[in-house]
Amino acid sequence: MTVHEALLARRSMRAYKPEPVPRDILVKVLKDAAQTPSWANSQPWEIVVAEGETLKKIKDGYTDCYAKAVKGSPELASPHEWTAAAKRRQQGLFPDMMRDCGEAVNQFGPLNASMFNAPAVIYICMDKILSTWSVYDIGAYSQSLMLSAAENGLGTIPAITLCLYPEVLRRELSLPDNLQIIIGIAIGYVDETNSLNNLHTSRSPIEENVTFRM
């Protein structure tokens, strides 16, 4: 698989088979992602992989929070405002879903709440003393990880819903106080029978956001 092919193959998959990902494949994906460049080779990412009983406890904790209508409070704050261009692109998501997924769009909320039924979630953290510049490095790391996953026959989705309740994550993952939870990436074998995974979101032509100066 070429880089171009991996970029086209990688999509946010929202429904997974229950079978676990073999440890050696997860390790291979993580080793690939470790090649990501970072500022002065700082490699700010700290990774915790939730699987099996640990992930079940996290899902149970989230279910309890949802039942009690606990407001989510991810440690990396979500945006309060978007540009007009970003809002216009976001508005295209629902038509794309209706076009590609049909009745499966009704599963969108429940699958978000159940962590997409993924057998593993990779949590990417960084030390609290670091600046937002290191978040850029973690974004690059995330893309490396997801491209390697695609090459190895796995689906992924980075999602803020995976980080909504840090108190649950800190308890079940035994995270030290110095770490900030940045993002979670669900990973696993895609449930090909679920048409929610047929979604292909549109991309703006590069003329909208690329300028050449000569």
Provide an overview of this structure.
- With 214 residues, this protein is of the alpha+beta class.
- The chain has one domain (3-197): NADH Oxidase, CATH 3.40.109.10.
- Helix content is 39%, strand content 14%.
- It is built from 8 helices and 4 strands; from the N terminus they run ααβααααβαβαβ.
- It has helices spanning 3-9, 23-33, 52-67, 84-91, 93-101, 108-113, 133-151, 166-173, and strands at 46-51, 120-127, 155-159, 179-188.
- It has a 4-stranded antiparallel beta sheet.
- The protein is globular, with a radius of gyration of 18 Å.
- The mean pLDDT is 93.
Overview features:
single chain, 214 residues, alpha+beta, NADH Oxidase, 4-stranded antiparallel β-sheet, 8 helices, 14% strand
Entry summary:
This protein has 214 residues and is an alpha+beta fold.
Write the layout of secondary structure elements.
Layout: H1 3-9, H2 23-33, E1 46-51, H3 52-67, H4 84-91, H5 93-101, H6 108-113, E2 120-127, H7 133-151, E3 155-159, H8 166-173, E4 179-188
Antiparallel strand pairs: 1-2, 2-4, 3-4
Helix pairs in contact: 1-7, 2-7, 3-8
Coarse morphology: globular
What can be said about the biggest beta sheet?
4 strands, antiparallel
The CATH homologous superfamily: NADH Oxidase
Count of separate DSSP helical elements? 8
- The helical percent reads 25-40%
CATH class: Alpha Beta
CATH topology group: NADH Oxidase
Q: Secondary-structure element sequence? A: HHEHHHHEHEHE
Kindly, what is the distance between the CA atoms of the first and last residues, rounded to a whole number of angstroms? 34 Å
Number of domains: 1
- Spatial extent as radius of gyration: 18 Å
CATH architecture: 3-Layer(aba) Sandwich
**pLDDT average, as an integer?**
93
Please state the structural category. Answer: alpha+beta
- Beta fraction of the residues? 5-15%
Give, in spatial order, the strands making up the sheet with the most strands.
1-2-4-3
| Number of DSSP E strands | 4
